[in-house]
Amino acid sequence: HPVNIPRREKDFQGMLEYKKEDELKLVKNLILELKPRGVAVNLIPGLPAYILFMCLRHADYVNDDQKVRTLLTSTINSIKKILKKRGDDFETVSFWLSNTCRFLHCLKQYSGDEAFMKHNTSRQNEHCLSNFDLAEYRQVISDLAIQIYQQLIKCMENILHPMIVSGMLEHETIQGVSGVKPTGLRKRTSSIADEGTYTLDSILRQLSAFHSTMCQHGTDPELIKQVVKQQFYIIGAVTLNNLLLRKDMCSWSKGMQIRYNVSQLEEWLRDKGLMTCGAKETLEPLIQAAQLLQVKKKTDEDAEAICSMCQALTTAQIVKVLNLYTPVNEFEERVSVAFIRTIQTRLRDRCESPQLLMDTKMIYPVTFPFNPSCLALETIQIPSSLQLGFLTRV
Amino acid sequence: PRPASRPRVLLRAPTLAEMEEMNISEEEESP
Prior knowledge:
The complex is a heterodimer of chains A (394) and B (31). Chain A is mainly α. Chain A has 14 helices and three strands. In chain A, strands 1-3 form a two-stranded antiparallel sheet. In chain A, helix 2 packs antiparallel against helix 3 (65-85). The radius of gyration of chain A is 27 Å and the shape is elongated. Chain A starts with 15 loop residues before the first strand and ends with a strand. With 31 residues, chain B is mainly alpha-helical. Chain B is 45% helix and 6% strand. Chain B has one helix and one strand. Chain B is elongated. Classes of the chains: A mainly alpha (394), B mainly alpha (31). The A-B interface holds A 65, 68-69, 72-73, 76-77, 80, 112, 126, 128-137, 139-140, 143-144, 147 and B 1-2, 7-16, 19-20, 22-23.
């Protein structure tokens, strides 16, 4: 009778053997038909990446360069295909960004290159690629990761954008401050947002949802920081641009509301441990515009204070806010033309863009700092839900 | 174990754009 002797984990080499004719089935089950909210929700973070890498290791081990090439090409093309099909689904894009990055880290960690082996165990060093140097393919995977990152940013911006003006500018949460309309009439106060109106809370909840999903997918912490920085940039830029075009947004009370909203965003960063990711700094133009709405705007001393305070605003932006500034009552005057001329004279030597609006299409360049894994490849087991029974653990 | 003296063979790779073009032409060729 055949005896089924279970192999001890120390006997496994951390590779997955597969037949060439099963390659299509591999990418189909592992990439094209894998649903992040389906079976993938229970997988260890990065499992698809580890599985693909272990298959690659075996193709390398048997010295089959063609097999290595076709596996890499199929992997890359399949990821691109699924992102083309479901590129507007944040979870799908986030899932494949984190797996592509993990795959890239594996290619480095097990490349045999000493620079990437510093944190390896001796067992991990034994699992380095045997025959092939895949440095050029690492570049391709890195380029793919950049494309996916940009797609993720666009996906998030499409979700966030409709919330920003409403949540950051229009919805008023500070009771009593905006009791008087710019026209002098008293407004009806309400602590409840009208149905369909986005509030600051809507924005914070959405940021938390994005953050939670990325964490669940095992996205590199350094990458999460870059994503959050980009999110805050778009929030600040869209808010400021709207303020620069609307007279009804340029009042003392609006400045107060904006400063409160920014403080809530900072609180969110603190809560997530993201105070050093650079996100707060991207709000500086908006913060300074809000301060500009609240400071005195009469004397030469006021002009000097404004010029030194508004380092993150262009002259065009400062002048626009001053021109749009609307007093909330009859005791306050509009900003005088002479005062605005004083500001312009003081700032005439600045070397800056004459641009009024911030560039809402700007995406900060992304980097993928090397993040080796402590996971031992020989311990990885494949759940049956992935339907990869044709792979053999070696 | 792999002998340390044996260098790995560099596998040349197409760029991402070239892979995309190859993929498109393969899809066009297949029925």
